Amino acid sequence: MVSPGKNSTHIPLLTYILYIFGANQKNQITTFVSVIILLIIIGIIVAGSFLVGFIWAVKSGQYDDTYSPAVRMLFDDAKPVKKKSDDGSQEEKTTNEAESNDGEESLNNQ
Amino acid sequence: MGVKCVHCGEDCGKHPVMWDEKPFCCYGCKTVYEILNVKKLDKYYEIEPMSGIKVEQTDVGDKYAYLDLDEIREKILSFSDSGISKVNLFIPTIHCASCIWLLENLSTLNPGIIQSGVNFPNKTVSITFKDQEISLRQLVEMLVSIHYIPEISLDQLDTSSSTKASRDLLLKIGVAGFSLLNVMLYNFPEYLPGGELLEKEFMRYFGWLSFILSLPVVFYSASDYYLSAYKGLKHKMINIDVPITLGIFTLFIQSTYEIITGSGIGFLDSLVGLVFLLLIGKWYQGKTYQALSFERDYKSYFPVAVTKLINDKEESTPLQKITTGDRILIRNQELIPADAKLLSDHANIDYSFVTGESIPTPKKAGELIFAGGRQVGGIIQLEVIHEVEQSYLTQLWNQDNKKTTVNSGLDTLINKVSEYFTVIILLIATIAAVYWLFNDPSLAVFAFTSVLIIACPCALALTVPFTFGSTMRAFGRKGFYIKNTQVIEDLHKIDTIVFDKTGTLTHSRSMDAKFVGDTLSEEEQIMIKSLAANSSHPLSATIKDAIPSTEYFEVEDFKEIPAMGTTGLVSGKRVNIGSKKFVTGKDDLDVGSTNVYVFIDQHIKGYFKIENRYRDGLKQVIDNLKNNYQLFLLSGDNEAEKKNLSPVFGSETKLFFNQSPTDKMTFVKKLKKEGRKVLMVGDGLNDAGALMQSDVGLTIADDIYSFSPACDGIIESSKFSIIDRFINYTQTSLNIVKISFVISFLYNVVGIYFAVQGTLSPLIAAILMPLSSISVVAFATFMVNYTSRGIGIVKK
Predict the structure, then answer these.
(1) How far apart are CA B158 and CA B734, in angstroms?
(2) Closest approach of chain B CAs to the CA of A67, in angstroms?
(3) H or E element in which residue B572 lies
(4) Do B182 and A79 touch (CB under 8 A)?
(5) Are the CB atoms for B50 and B43 separated by under 8 Å?
(6) How far apart are CA B4 and CA B25, in angstroms?
(7) What's the pLDDT score for residue B526?
């Protein structure tokens, strides 16, 4: 257990890491600190965008049926005889479906 | 073994129907293959070979005429605007990848269909189509033509609420997971050696960031727990959500205080982790069988509309508009929706929905026919006596709808435990606070909150969802589907089991036929079989199956006389099979049993005695249950079967015969009044009242997706022989819960040891709380999967 002692003899981890990277001057360490802040901001943005993506996926009903998409994916691959355009429109339709689902649901909710 | 049908995989017999040099078992299957082949959809058979559905009868006639009625159309369509409509149809037979492929390529079959999508777990297909090019009726008839028969009834159309709830839960989990990962990252440096040497600035930043990120978790993700705790307290009971809510709030307030004052970073990582794990547990527990319906009322059985006769003109009319005195037409295989008087000369009513008895009952003109029967044979005319709502069976059903859910959740194990738990924790916290108040007042508040924080019953709350959730899945894999996890605990508590006979203890579709009379030569046997094979009556099918020969003779001059029997010329000789009256001319006085008389070429040869076939393993199941439970048998039939049943049940079991549906219901009610916990095992609509009254109602079903009355669980009929193992397993399941409780208490003891001393650091909390939860979850899940392996193994 770590006891927060005031006169600890531990080498501060950050300083230690920075030392490995050859930073031994104070201004370099300050730069590193601001890099951490930058990283945290980036981190939140990235994680946040994943969250937004997840929320969108749930709301568009992608988690309502987790079985058929896995199967459906294989259909298109195994359809060499069909025309390319058919496949394309098929895909378009599926995305449209997700959107139209959305639209309808808001309609229904109202 | 002959060749297998290309469409459905069934044995084609000796004379397969050939088309395109491929064998089919029947013309129905061939037709579907033809349709798909012409439309270049034969890939259907490549994805999963022989995945088609065999349907006995595809001639729909005007059956779906009601779909042309505007008022019904409006109810069924989920969306309709400017020529484009959308409909969700429930198709219970969706079962494989081929089904998905075909149903999503419906637009190839008819260009009027814009788009179709399958929801596999719900077994629904949503179809968007152009009204001008294809009507709803044509659409449904097209689905029927390829053997995907949608089940249309008025009550299954609102499934949106359940999907919304599951989406809500997923969102909450997502938000909690997002916060958890970030907050953990911010708190992590604190736990590393040297973390305390980080500049104070950082700690403040991280603290505030954690605080902001935990807000949506506390106020959105965990909100259900507050609501449930509030509801519990309102009913004067302490459910498990009360200590959880207490823990969450204490964690949040303590951490907020630390962050604002800058004295520390708080326990927010533990808080967010706790909520995340709890929600995962909830999700795991809540995963139910979406396509199974446990709460049907009579509406899901009855047709949406019936054919009414107005001035001798047929008109499709919605069921609600049928009133007393109306004349209705019922076709072959249609359900009689209301109590009615027969106007036609003869009718053959199959009450298998109601009683589980599949031999149709003959009715004469003027007789009363109860709602719920199914006409077998030609078209009949009826005059409605009671409106749908007032009919005998529907009334029985409506009475019971008043049964409220008051008793649910009141005395569950977890709530009993949490009651003591909450009191004890509050007591310990108070004692610790009082102790420190006198020794070191600065620690008093911290000790108090620490106890509440570390004792937050996360592991405790996860035990039940994971143990029962795993049990529910294990049961499901073995053919026993329960409505929710609560049923497991209810099932464990029962001390009395009531069985229905017909359809529950006996097979509903197959019977035994024993021949009594002169010894039949092999030729005579084949003659009987050949004649029986031409008739559609279930008794003929039974006799056909009872004769082992595989040969058939040509039958000429075949005639089937409703309610009497069949006759025909087989190899030049007259063969009659049917009722005693039909064959011998005398009235059948033996009402206790079903006999089919046989006449071949001037002689009455004897009769086939038709007996119910009991389910395999019945004796064993009863023997195993007899010792631990009080058993009862309620049968709607007469006492003819008593001599067969008494040796099985033994002397201590009471057998009741001639029980009406109301009798059954009052019987179960009476048992419950005596303080018994009753399990009712039934199958038909006549058991519906008793099933609803009982503590646990189980339904035996040949096809789990259709025709089961409202109940708590559905068991596949083939799994009847292991029903006792399912019931016994609930004991194991509960033991696992209890052991898990002990484990989580041990963790709590360790945590409280630190807490009362006022030395609970965020690090201990961050390790102890997830560790206890995860180890309990792992233990419960593993134990259930390990111990439940034996359930499905049939001992020989």
Answers:
(1) 35
(2) 6
(3) none
(4) no
(5) no
(6) 7
(7) 83
Estimate to the nearest angstrom the gap between the alpha carbon of B520 and the chain centroid: 46
| Same domain flag for B167 and B283 | yes
The total number of structural domains that make up chain B: 6
Q: Is residue B437 part of a domain?
A: yes
Provide the pairing of β-strand B496-500 with B678-682.
Answer: parallel
Q: State which residues form the domain around B90.
A: 65-158
Instruction: Find the closest chain A residue to B190 by CA distance.
Output: A2
Nearest residue, CB atoms, A58 vs list B100, B174, B192: B174
Q: Which of A48-57, B10-19, B545-554 has the highest mean pLDDT?
A: A48-57
- State the complex-level ipTM: 0.73
Rounded Cα distance, B588 and B108, in Å: 57
Tokens 């807000």 correspond to B215
Residue B319 belongs to domain with CATH number: 2.70.150.10
Q: With contact defined as beta carbons under 8 Å apart, do B691 and B669 qualify?
A: no
Of A65, A93, A107, the CB nearest to B121: A65
Per-residue buried b or exposed e for B26-35, using 16+ beta carbons within 10 Å of the residue's own CB: bebbbbbbee
Please report, for residues B244, B512, B564, B577, B596, the alpha-carbon distance to residue B588 in angstroms, rounded to integers and kept in the order given. 70, 20, 12, 14, 11
Written as six digits, the tokens of B452 are: 């509440």
Of residues B760, B756, B634, the one with CA closest to residue B691: B634
Point out the residue among A4, A47, A65 whose CB comes nearest to the CB of B119.
Answer: A65
Select the highest-mean-pLDDT range: B165-174, B343-352, B522-531, B708-717: B165-174
Distance CA B413, CA B467 (A): 13
Give the residues across from B119 on adjacent strands.
Answer: B124
Q: Residues in chain B, how many? A: 796
Helix or strand (DSSP H, E) at B178: helix B160-191
Q: How far is CA B589 from CA B42, B144, B363, B577, in A?
A: 57, 44, 17, 18
Q: What is the pLDDT of residues B513-570, one digit of tens each?
A: 778 887 778 888 888 888 887 777 777 878 877 787 777 787 888 877 766 788 888 8
Rounded distance between C-alpha atoms, residue B567 and residue B574, angstroms: 7
Q: B554 and B431, same structural domain?
A: no
B167–A61: do the CB atoms touch at under 8 Å? yes
**In this complex, is the C-beta atom of B43 within 8 Å of any C-beta atom belonging to chain A?**
yes
Closest CA to B130 of B116, B147, B151: B116
Q: Considering the domain boundaries, does residue B298 fall inside one?
A: no
Residue with tokens 């058919």: A86
Helix axis angle for B241-261 and B268-286, nearest 10°, is: 150
